[in-house]
Amino acid sequence: MELIEKPEAVRRRARMPDYARARRTFTWAGARAQMSGLPGGRGLNIAHEAVDRHATGRGDAVALRVLSRDGAVDEVTYAELRRRTDRFANALRALGVARGERVFTLLPRTLDLYVVALGTLKAGCVLSPLFSAFGPEPVAQRLRLGEGRVLATTPRLYERRVRPQRADLPDLRHVLLTGDPAEGPDDGEEGCSALQHLLDAAEDGFTIPPTDPEDPALLHFTSGTTGRPKGAVHVHEAAVAHHATATAALDLGPDDVFWCTADPGWVTGTSYGIVAPLTHGATLLVDERDFDAERWYDVLAEQRVTVWYTAPTALRMLARHGAEAAHRRDLSALRHVASVGEPLNAEVVRWSAEVLGTPVHDNWWQTETGAIMISNFAGEDIRPGSMGRPLPGIEATVLERGPDGRALRTGGGVREVTTPGVDGELALRVGWPSLFRGYLHEDERYRASFADGWYLTGDVVRRDADGWYWFAGRADDVIKTAGHLVGPFEVESVLMAHPAVAEAAVIGKPDPVAGELVKAFVTLRPGWWPSDALHDELIAFARRRLGSVAPKELVVDPHLPHTRSGKILRRLLKARELGLPEGDLSTVETS
User: Which stretches make up the AMP-binding enzyme C-terminal domain (predicted)?
Assistant: First the structure.
């Protein structure tokens, strides 16, 4: 089996240098003890752990380094971040917003977003971040489901995304508009207020109220196949897992410059784009602008980024751009690269090792888990294409599956797969702090996510003899062809090993004989063009490597559907192929 070995010097400097020892000695109680807690034993509050505890002893340390669209670089210390978030918490009180009420953000990556997010948590309200590229209906749908009381957004986004739906949002009492107050509606119009006016009028200094670790803190919406998004509820205790997993999986500490490219409208952009790095006292890089390969390389070099957390799609786009762009920059500060959001192909891991000087460390988790569960670690060798192994404090297993592809339940229990290399549903033993506490208003749906003390992830994996996990696909993505169960990711990875293929997506297409046929959609790299010869070459290439489960059909599609976070939407490809309802389209990237 292919292995990328880590030099001894890399192992020694890792914050978790010995995985086996860490698993033996780690406890969640010990991780909880690394949090300072509210003064006077008044509980645990995410914003206190992320801001206030550092502002007292390390107030001059840089918390946020904001790269603005106009090219300016602004630094905000922990002491200044405390002052600004205190003012926002006081502003919420002045508006009469009660503890437990939900504050939504619909904001680009600007300083205001981080002030609102952390100030909301200080006030004991629940933060629900939305992706700023959502259209009017997805925004209104989430505000309705979440009974949003407050929305912070820009004048432009308000006019385009919210005002057309405002009459259908009876719970929304306050809209706080960022930026220049002169650019938006007058204060009071339709319940609108200029955020800056509120902050100017608010007092410095805020005492965070007693916060039980089980108090709701975060509401993250994740798309469902039925067209109705699910609202996953997380509590303040989740910060314990954010902090601990950032150490183990991201090798993160207080001396790091950390860049998480995920938008805070997604769970990654909140858990690891706000909370985790700040609980460590690190410097968090905030980039207002969108992806551009040359500029991203500039950011890595000029800002001396040490730990970088990004998406496989972005890494594949950088790889397509060529190695020369990386070689022209000084990336010597970069010591750890990690990816999240979708499976990471082995080719990208190798490319990163050769071009960036360190392999990409894939990791796996979900909105519902709240934090990284399975990872490749800084101090350990990497098996390219593997998700890695469970983090200390996390017990994972593979469960036998029934005809519907989900975990087989017999008499209320489940059965574990004991043979290495056999596919099954990934399950996690309940008990870590960031596990979601419910789907908002959907108790039955929440209960169905658990069986026999396990959280059922809905992802199909296999575990090798050494305990490494390998992603096969979602339970509802797995293709049943001629008696075989085929994981789409395995086929996609093989296709992407061909030099012509930049991206690939695989679905099952109904067939009266085989049950389903494997059909592939591919996007070509620059310099390659569709042709009958290339089509036949790709089919043959896959057949040589996969045998009978190789694609029977293949089409070139330069516009594969992606979510706004970069994941290819296989379900949408399948729905279009079969003429079925397309389900929830709120997260689909639009051109």
Answer: 490-567
